[in-house]
Design brief:
Structural class of chain A: alpha/beta
CATH topology of the largest domain in chain A: Aspartate Aminotransferase, domain 2
Shape of chain A: globular
Largest sheet of chain A: 7 strands, mixed
CATH superfamily of the largest domain in chain A: Type I PLP-dependent aspartate aminotransferase-like (Major domain)
Oligomer: homotetramer
Distance between the termini of chain A: 18 Å
Strand content of chain A: 15-25%
CATH class of the largest domain in chain A: Alpha Beta
Number of strands of chain A: 10
Number of domains of chain A: 2
Strand order of the largest sheet of chain A: 1-7-6-5-4-2-3
Chain lengths: 334, 334, 334, 334
């Protein structure tokens, strides 16, 4: 009973079927019929003209977005616990050719205009310091919290004021939308977002993420950066196929809801005091003693310790209901 | 009837089956059971202890290999027509942080010790010039020629003498081995090769190539570079699965032989004068007038023009015999 | 009466004389007679065989040292207030090709083994995070504090234990040695330091700093990086001349003592409560109200505000005694 | 009697005097009174509003200019014998973060629209190849030839047509202007040049070159790149002083004329057959047998061999007339 990462989940049947269906001859790279449908598909979803670029990993999507928004002598504002800072082995620095990440604080890996303003106030406007060029947030955050459209818009307004590009790491964007039940547009370009890493792999895909540019002028140069980074797969149709399969009939939302619901059930079983943070997406952070953690593991539940006295449990799209029930019961019984 | 690129081919059934079989929960990234089998599988194949790293593209494999072999202030010797020079949008420069490619000439994109010595002789040994640190050849070459073990060894000896790392871009390594009917070891580490990009995608895979380090000390740092480049896919088991499926029962050789045989039939039909180069792997370069090219296209054959008066035709593992026969007949009838 | 930066000071007469004396034909770049004397001159000073490389700025010296000690996928531990983090516009990131700076805290910009251990403990040993490869401290620190030989050695021991390269930004190394009255060797290689940026410009030079490698194996590749960064001046003899002039007869120590003495007089006049930090080198940090700062400025003293309620005053080698007396009196009279 | 490089020459008296005069307290970096005069001084000289940035080396000037004109995924067209390709240890690749140099041919290191068009025709307009973004020529060339205003304009027109930025490496720009007796504007912005590396060091300076942006929008970001590269010297006033001293009263032209005249006398003595190339600036390339070269060296003349059967002699601003006469006589007597 695995709750340690949605990266470990299986691939959903619609994606597997799409791979089989895409297995015929077609033009290489991104010249195939499926890849060419992506711009339209995402423009429909987001109710605006946007550009969509498939890549194989969220790290590639994030880094390409940041390279489009920040020069080598610039800086990217992000949360101290952001994936781009802690979990990508310096990929943003590699792709941006050495831009600096400026780290802000905030409960549950969430940023606010206030924390960002405070950080920016400490930067001197001279050539001795790299100048902030972009903001990157994660929605849902690395701690399973969700920014609302209003919260994103407040940050978007700040970006316009400070002339910062605005990137959203949406490795779990589907979970955020599912939670908020909002229009994807309201959580992105209508709130001032320029670029979105739209994650599919954690949510039932195999190896395809979408980098969405609402500022479409950024897309063309990104195609060169993508090729140059070795991310233009020669049989790219298999990536486009995965994404299109998940957009079709709202599979992406269905999967995200399943994961969120599982997490909600676990969170409800845990109750207020045991929860480190509210459960808003598909992650649950529990206060547990080492003995309690061991007890859960003895019952077959697999999860990460998350600092002293805390555990992280992540629900996936394919989490079996009986496993969720068992976990909920086990936590309630602690 | 497509003969324009082996990149456009379908995925072979063994790989598709392996994807389905791998579709269960396992550890993320490269911690899964399949990924962990790669070192052993390739060590068996190459009859020596080696390290094997999956990546999604040949460009990534090549660039990671070159970054392991050449510092930013170094240079990489390669052929003027090498894929790393002409078809990767500067990926070697990106991954090596700005190393320079030094371009040598040679018929059919093949290098010899003599052409390399001549090139090296022009480099001053002082800090005003980047110093050669690595040699990269492509086997089979971009023009479908094959280096024999002896030819590779002569280059390997030169590399030792000149203290150059030795990389082989083996996007069509399978085609070379199939042609030579030699042991993979003889074409690589026994001939002095340090790193091999072992291609599977053109040969029936979907999205997995293997970077093989015979100089195993180079592997560890490469894992960081790979992550940093966004190439550590979170569901990496699906890449390992593809590779293992093609190694099993010699699928990689079977596929390559099929492609080579198809090209040989086409080449034989063309005959000596019409051939720009001997057909040694799965590519055929023909001398054709514009009218002849048009005539072939009118009959439904798809291929690339390759400079004035020449055409490139590439046979794939899945080329239908009847298509090959039709093409051979059409060429013979020109 | 300028107390805002030792960078603004004049060039000392010995250096000016050396420039005139060097003004004859000699080999270009660093092949001249003066440049060739540097290794020996510093080896004598440091009582060990070392390599010495002139560069025009401390930023270049620091960055070249860090590039020699840290790979692009590595991290450099430094203080949150370090010059390399705050005042070099990302030069370390540029020269290292995107390494990350890990920021530790400590009073007066000083690091201790404890703060560094705490920082390192937070780094996971896996490919998802850049791994610490080097430590960089500043001696004297950006806040005018001095590390003793014992303090440096404690850090050097930690570096050995953790396999970190050890760099000292010695923009004011002369001030530290003058303060401690110690052997330069005790403050560097005997304490485990691998590379030192030995500053001369703030201390009476015009445009020459020395990068000293105690780990001499690092020097050769650095010469390529230096050229590649555009730092191999064609008339390099004029840089070597400056450095040699300051090493001769202990000019570097004489100048540093003059600056330290001036700062000490100012600090003594200020007294304990007014001092933010002890005065150990040539910088004085005062607690002043806006009115007090204005009063000092009205009397002709030029200095920087340093955050709310604080002022930074820097004494230079050429500070006129009467100006120092006047400032001391003015501060005492506040 | 040294004729091997103008880099080895002495510093002219006006520059030495200016250094002495600048030796007083002033604001650090480029905030001083002298540095602030540069924009105006060069705007007067070039009869248009331009931005002027001091740096310590021609390599830094060239690389900063190229980084302003070419993205990492772009390419720079230059001559196969260009300094930026052969003598800067990959500095353009370092500063541009890995752009590629595309090499064209041409007698005497001169490019023509035709050779460039032929080169550009070979670049496919797709993401698999880096796209040309800039042209860089050297005037006077590395072989002492001079582009006329018309020749530069023809290249400038091509740049506009092909949307290439246009950089001139003017390490010997003074020699070109002195030869042509033209307005500096006619050789630069009026001919379509965007950025000029205006050399002073070879022409009597000590350590200051000027990077001139006629496309003034490029200057601001360059200031960050310059700082980040460690090229913002803290006592920058001494660089500005050198440049201003050489602009004053036409010292730069006087020095260049002296060098050109010396070369012309040598060239005239050599006569047509012995000259590899016409003598248009301050370099002379002679056909000499090894015995003849030895004979010249026996008489005390110092110069470089330049490939088999050729020698390069460079005249400097401070070449003594008697040495020039002696050399001319010695060559005539061969």
């Amino acid at each position: 009973m695995r709750f340690f990462s949605d990266n470990a989940a299986a691939v959903c049947p619609e994606v597997m079927a799409a791979l089989t269906e895409a297995n015929h001859v077609d033009t290489a790279y991104d010249g195939d019929a499926l890849s060419k449908r992506l711009d339209d598909a995402f423009s429909d979803l987001f109710e605006t003209r946007c550009r969509a670029i498939w890549v194989a990993t969220g790290t590639a999507a994030n880094s390409l977005a940041l390279a489009a928004l920040c020069p080598p002598h610039g800086a990217i504002v992000c949360h101290r616990d952001a994936h781009i800072q802690n979990d990508e082995c310096g990929a943003p620095e590699f792709y941006t050719h050495g831009a600096k990440l400026l780290l802000a604080d905030g409960e549950g890996a969430k940023l606010t205009p206030e924390t960002i303003r405070a950080l920016l106030a400490g930067v001197r406007d001279d050539v001795h310091q790299v100048q902030p060029a972009a903001l990157s947030i994660t929605n849902a955050t690395e701690y399973g919290l969700v920014y609302t459209p209003d919260e994103v818009k407040a940050l978007g307004d700040l970006c316009r004021e400070k002339e910062l590009g605005f990137h959203v790491d949406g490795a779990r964007f589907a979970n955020a939308v599912a939670r908020l039940d909002c229009r994807p547009a309201d959580l992105t370009w209508r709130a001032g977002v320029d670029a979105l890493s739209f994650g599919f792999v954690k949510n039932g895909g195999m190896s395809a993420e979408a980098l969405i540019f609402f500022d479409t002028a950024l897309a063309d140069a990104t195609l060169y950066r993508k090729k140059r980074a070795g991310h233009l797969l020669s049989k790219g149709r298999f990536l486009a196929a995965q994404i299109l399969a998940m957009l079709e009939d709202g599979v992406w939302l269905r999967n995200a809801r399943a994961a969120n619901d599982a997490a909600a059930r676990i969170g409800a079983a845990a109750g207020g005091d045991r929860l480190v943070l509210p459960v808003e997406a598909n992650e649950v952070f529990l206060r547990v003693t080492p003995e309690e953690a061991a007890a859960l593991r003895d019952q077959g539940f697999d999860f990460y310790d998350w600092g002293p006295g805390e555990a992280r449990l992540v629900a996936s799209w394919d989490q079996r209901p009986e496993d969720v029930s068992a976990l909920a019961a086990a936590i309630a019984a602690l």
